[in-house]
């Protein structure tokens, strides 16, 4: 087959097959990671983000936010961030220390996450 572009009159013909060598743009996946800590956890996940971006450039977009709040408020702030964002997040992660909060708060957050 010739590498020349098709003639203008041939573009509407049924026998003309579409070109297969045109690149397809891959839409990136958006992921949100929200942490209880303000500095340590975001720095850790920034390292993970750099590793992912070096291998899958333009395919995965990680948004990392350090909130510095308790478990229940952390969940509410994540809901607000997702609602305000123009991106559609494929996964939303909430990271917090389990030994800093009462067990009933942790169980309640887990139950609320399952309902959302």
Q: Can you tell me about this structure?
A:
The protein is of the alpha/beta class and 116 residues long. It has a single domain (27-115), classed as Rossmann fold. 37% of the residues lie in helices and 18% in strands. It contains three helices and three strands, in the order βαβαβα. A three-stranded parallel β-sheet has the order 2-1-3, sandwiched between helices.
Question: What descriptive keywords fit this protein?
Answer:
116 residues, alpha/beta, Rossmann fold, 37% helix, elongated
Helix content: 25-40%
What are the low-pLDDT stretches, counting only 5+ consecutive residues below 50?
A: none
Strand elements, count: 3
Give, in spatial order, the strands making up the sheet with the most strands. 2-1-3
CATH topology-level fold name: Rossmann fold
Number of helices: 3
Short summary:
The chain has 116 residues and is of the alpha/beta class. 37% of the residues lie in helices and 18% in strands. A three-stranded parallel beta sheet has the order 2-1-3, sandwiched between helices.
Helices and strands in order:
Blueprint: E1 29-35, H1 40-55, E2 60-66, H2 71-84, E3 89-95, H3 103-115
Parallel strand pairs: 1-2, 1-3
């Amino acid at each position: 087959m010739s590498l020349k572009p098709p003639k203008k009159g041939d573009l509407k013909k049924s026998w003309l097959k579409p070109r297969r060598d045109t690149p397809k743009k891959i839409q990136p996946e958006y992921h949100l990671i929200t942490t209880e800590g303000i500095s340590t956890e975001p720095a850790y996940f920034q390292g993970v983000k750099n590793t992912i971006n070096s291998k899958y450039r333009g395919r995965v977009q990680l948004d990392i936010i350090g909130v510095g709040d308790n478990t229940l408020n952390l969940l509410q702030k994540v809901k607000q961030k997702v609602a305000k964002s123009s991106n559609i997040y494929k996964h939303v992660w909430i990271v917090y220390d389990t030994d800093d909060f009462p067990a009933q708060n942790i169980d309640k957050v887990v139950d609320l996450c399952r309902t959302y």
